[in-house]
Amino acid sequence: MQTVTSKWYPALASGTTQFIRKATIYRTVTGTLRSATLTILSGTIQISCLQNPRRTLSITCFDPTGALTPPPIGSSTFLLPYFRNTIKVWAGFRYPTGSEYLVPCGTFIITTAQWTDTGNNVVISIKGTDFFSWLGLAQLVTGVSWPTGTTLITAIQPYLHTPPKNGKMQLMLPSSLTVTGAPFSITSQTTHATVVTMIATAMGAEVFFDVNGTAVLRMQQSPITLTPPYKQILPVVWTLTQGQPGFYKVSRKLTVAGPAYNDWKVAGETNNMTLYSTTQTPNYKATGPVFRVKDTNPNSPTYVNGPYGDMATVDTATGATTQIQVETIAKQNLLMSLGRIDYLSMTVARNPALDVEDLLHVYRPRIGINGNYFAEKITLPLTGTSSMMKVTARWGGTPL
């Protein structure tokens, strides 16, 4: 959840506050940042913490100044499309006093641009993804390896080059976290996206790009601790209550679909291992360290001694060679599984400051909802007339 002013939540609940949005396109040419501002007519931003890229954009817009009219092919002034051009989108509210407040909703690589001349005006349709797509374009020409004790930031930094500010990164990990094993290596013909994902996963971390296009590397998010007394460690950022303006509809689904294992056994590798891309077949045997972790929270819907029972699985951790690594990965896998049998699909007021992995408190007792839920997917409409957005969330811990 982004930091907002005290007027933000009253604006969400008001039917008279005007929703506003804007987009600016950037291109770096010979060290100079060129830009143009668009008027958004319609579109959506999709956000999901279950995939990379996390953010995708699809908008239709109007170019009031003509700055985006296609010039001859190859012109250095052209802002659309090509992968070194980016578009940043903001959304927010115009308050009754006339003041405006916007928050960033995403910074995207432009993947497709289409012009349509209607006879009366020119409309541009733009599609894009966050900067993780950029990492998928580059491949290792030769293999790479790091010696024992190399810090994670040192190993991963060279593979997070992004336009227009290469290497910008936010580290949210313990400073002592290191890559261990002798050696830690990755074969050639692997994309930079695979490299950063493998390194992060081997350390029980996640990597993604935030709304400003900054690479974020942090431990896997969890709303509660995995050990007694199961303390809530993420703050509730938005409370949605029955009868509250802006909380239109909620659907609750109880299902066993998806990775809802509550008993994880993770086996690591021996030393002198090699990490392989997902398209290759590993040739190692998992004879290294082993760790097992279960959902022992009696308040969890996937409690191993509750009605759900013990749903066990075994995972081989590519790249894990130490006990602490397999323990971290096992706990990460359990965090991703917790609560996956209890899902909410909500229609709520547009809140562009909300992000996936935010914790919501939801109260709709008529269908048994009174608890915290962890946002996994968000669809934010950018159309001026629409006032609703979709949020999918899973169970996120008992309120404390």
Give a quick summary of the entry.
It contains 5 helices and 20 strands.
Report on the structure:
- It is a single chain.
- With 400 residues, the chain is mainly beta.
- The protein is built from five helices and 20 strands.
- The strands form four sheets. Strands 1-2-3-6-5-4 form a six-stranded antiparallel beta barrel. A three-stranded mixed sheet has the order 8-11-10, covered by helices on one side.
- It is flat.
Task: Provide key terms for this protein.
single chain, 400 residues, mainly beta, Thrombin, subunit H, Phage tail protein beta-alpha-beta fold, 3 domains, 3-stranded mixed sheet, flat
Secondary structure layout:
Blueprint: H1 8-13, E1 18-29, E2 32-48, E3 55-62, E4 85-94, E5 100-117, E6 122-129, H2 132-135, E7 144-146, H3 152-156, E8 169-172, E9 184-186, H4 192-202, E10 205-209, E11 215-219, E12 236-241, E13 247-254, E14 263-267, E15 290-294, E16 312-316, H5 323-337, E17 342-349, E18 359-364, E19 369-381, E20 388-395
Parallel strand pairs: 8-11, 12-18, 14-16
Antiparallel strand pairs: 1-2, 1-4, 2-3, 2-19, 3-6, 4-5, 5-6, 7-9, 10-11, 13-17, 14-15, 17-20, 18-19, 19-20
